[in-house]
User: What shape does this take?
Amino acid sequence: MIFQSFFTTVSNIKPDKLAELRHLLDNDINADLSNNKYIPFSKLPNVHYCRWCIVDSAKNADGSDAPPMLLFQIIFDGKREAFIKGFLQDFASGIDKIYQYCEDYPTQPTYESRYSYFRKFRRKEPLAWTAVRGGTVEQILKEEKLRRGIEVFLDKNPMQQEQPETIQQRIKAFVSNTPEYQWAMTPPSKPSVVWKLAYYSKLVLLILCGIVLSPLILVFAIFWVLLLLYYEKQDNKHIMPLKRELKPEVLKREDLLRQNQLTEYGTFKGPHWFRYTNIHILLFVSSILGKYKSTKGNLGGIETIHFVSWAIFNKNQNLSFLSNYDGGWQSYLSEFIDFAASVMNLTFGNIKGYPKTRWLLKEGAHEEQNFKMIVRAYQYPCQIWYTAYPKLRVKNILRNAAIRKGLSRKMNTQQLQNWLKLF
Amino acid sequence: MSISYYGLQALKLSAESVYSFDLDFHEEGFASPIMQNRLRTLGDIGTNAPENWEWGGNDTDRANIHLLLMLFAKDDANLKQLCETFEKDFVTYQLEQVHEFFTSKMPDAKEHFGFRDSIAQPEIEGYSKKNASENVIKAGEFILGYSNEYNILPESPYAPETEDKKNILPTIANKKGYKDIGKNGTYVVFRQLEQDVKGFWSFIKKATQEVNGYDLERLGAKIVGRWRSGAPITKCPIHDNPDLAQDNDFNYAETDTDGMKCPIGAHIRRSNPRDAFMKEAKKSILFARKHRLMRRGRSYGKLFVENFDLNEILTKPDDGVKRGLYFLAVNANLGRQFNFIQQAWINDGAFQGLSHEPDVLLGSQTEVAEGEKTYFSMPQMPIRQRIETPQAYIHVRGSMNFFLPSMRTLQWIANL
Ligand code: HEM
Assistant: This one.
């Protein structure tokens, strides 16, 4: 089974080249994502999502303007190193074209210097979550085609009077007799034994560590929460009212039919060591939950996120939140507020300008309109955003996968009934 | 009487006050990113695009629409008289009538396709006699100045104290130095939706031939979620039961999870999924309560055939008369209520995991723009039936949001 990986970099842009870079991204690449001559995404069949955002509104910890930066994130199938190496090699001229506008990029780039540049500017995501683990781009697209094929077959062959078993057989016969779909009769690949062993032994190790260290963790947790409460009180004293903004540059690119992206960034509150440690603790805990608990496309009640990650950059002064989600901005934010407001408070609460919270969890994101305003205020446009399957939602992908799985699985009567409901 | 964004400017509210209105109420030229985004969000593209509107579809006309006046009277004669009185006032106060909308009285509260409408309406907490029912919603969802479903006051437009020298407006919470323009007022969505009655039923007629076990009435009921009488199909899926014509006491999760009775894609189930939006019914209700509308639509145009007889509808040649619905909805938060429902529930073909199934009744143009075929599926045992929905039979012919002020705010504006 092939797993998805994230790769994120943040580079400094040469200030005098900002306009040229913007033009390149906006006009030359974004105008035709599939077939532009620099990064033609049609030639990147393993890429789920990709974005390049010009970060030109970040603030340093002391409130001064941060230098303009270029944030890049690519989410793909397979191992990180191998993919990035291939990517830098196959699209060398496009990469050089973009990064010639960035500081420290080699003037005469070679294969090695390019790679070491990207390694140097890589920002490891403290949290990177995937809704459909192990669903490769190829598989996602193929399974959607398969579902469409079967649905048309069902339209043409009414079987309301048949027994479920007969319908199942006829669907199977249709799939195995159609060369285009035959592949679907073999079950999807499963994680290898080695992978499973590593996955579960890590969990066991974590639990064991947790048990052994529990007295220490408890003492630390109490101390830490008290500290958080102390800083919450301090922060609440000087919250700057934010302006409600329309952000035309964001609106221009938003509310596409079925999928959208969110790019948020802000500056850590002080004291920096505390906030920085705090976010790492939180994201560490979340990533464990994300890895072991939220495995069915549902992240804490939210079922509309494909991939989401956090990144820390600009000498650790800025925190960013990058997500690839289903539906429009309003519905995405409404779900966050209704199902994960407290989590928002704990994480975004580390950013300057976040509204007042009480007991860490209360208020803040629970105040709907105010929270939406804050999210807008810290949201910035993304010059390039690519998705490999713009028409599919997480729910569609999961449903398609279940349809395919059913073709090669033994089912009892109840399971068969449920499988037929998937159409 | 309600006021458009351009109306506020024409009435000389200060720029600061005008800006304080809901951002989803703000207007700019159609070419601007905010309007382009709104058209995309609401699905006002393709055949629903402003080019095809009868009013407000170009920047000049739109900027000239300042006030929406709605007159109600008990019969035609009284209405006529009322109109004449106002027309005289228009001259006196130098107002120009830019558009006029006549409505028709419809038998049994039906809309033009023949379905009884206006059954499911939210009741307002404190005003309704019932309490703690799922359908009793906090006042702040529909009127500014009261607590909403998040137990907070909805954002309300405001004016600097200095602009209220006569001290007419109430104070506003948490904003020192400002007065509340919004309290006891609200936002009204006004959309003209033209209905092609013959087209709609001819499409259903054709579709009945593609599926087993459906006649016109039943397939129409599946698409709307209620029989034409008004009876909810989740309660009487096989045959109409006119005794339930005004029934609104039902949910989906327990008795109709998979949509075997009322399909997930039916108009009423997607515009208010009640307890079945997600697996946990309680959570679902809480979520759905935050996306409710108070609908106050009025039909316009002559009935295609009296008493809505389906055979007659199918046989009578098209009369070329324009008819439809002036869709009017009241909400305190445009983005979270009307826009959300229209975008995430009505237009979205992937609603609740469906595939290319936008609301058949309203017919989304968004899928069309993507070059996709659209469908409507009816779950049933052992396997669903599905029809193709090639085209829309309701088209947007005008759309604008208005602010419906309180009497006090009107008085304040009159004194500006
Ligand atoms: C010409 C256009 C439309 C027609 C003919 C129409 C027709 C109907 C009918 C027959 C009902 C069932 C009666 C009832 O439950 O009260 C209904 C319910 C409803 N409609 Fe529409 N409708 C139209 C447009 C819209 C639009 C544009 C929206 C919102 C964006 C909308 C939202 C609703 C809602 C929220 C309900 C109540 C659902 C419930 O609470 O169960 N409708 N409509």
Notes: Residues B 111, 113, 115, 117-120, 193, 195, 224, 226, 267-268, 271-272, 293, 295, 324-325, 327, 341-342, 346, 361-362, 394 surround protoporphyrin IX containing FE (CB under 6 Å). Chain A has a mean pLDDT of 93. The longest helix of chain A spans residues 214-237. Chain A has 14 helices and ten strands.
